[in-house]
UniProtKB/TrEMBL annotation:
Superkingdom in the source lineage: Eukaryota
Name the UniProt record assigns to this protein: Uncharacterized protein
Annotated organism of origin: Buddleja alternifolia
Length: 95
């Protein structure tokens, strides 16, 4: 996964390749796809990957569940950035 890509860009691309492999007869289960996605994520997701691995059963997790967890993380990170930026702007206005 490239650093500039979002989860919503990356996971459908992985799904495309998984579907292509299935089309050619490969049997690929969700747990294998989940593990591959977790290993291939950008470094900014490291702590999220660890949290998911420790709190969820990866053997039963679906790609959709993983997508939801990663998307929630991305949204929280964006909110935190915006909040920090607003605080910095307020400080600079008062100085």
């Amino acid at each position: 996964m490239k650093e500039s890509k979002s989860v919503l860009d990356y996971i459908p691309r992985v799904g495309y390749y998984v579907n292509q492999m299935k089309r050619y007869g490969d049997e690929i289960k969700d747990d294998r796809v989940v593990e591959k996605i977790l290993r291939s994520l950008d470094l900014k997701f490291n702590y999220v990957v660890i949290a998911i691995e420790e709190s969820k059963d990866l053997d039963t997790m679906t790609v959709d569940e993983l997508t939801g967890s990663l998307q929630a993380h991305e949204e929280q990170a964006l909110q935190a950035k915006l909040s920090l930026k607003e605080k910095e702007e307020r400080r600079s206005t008062f100085q």
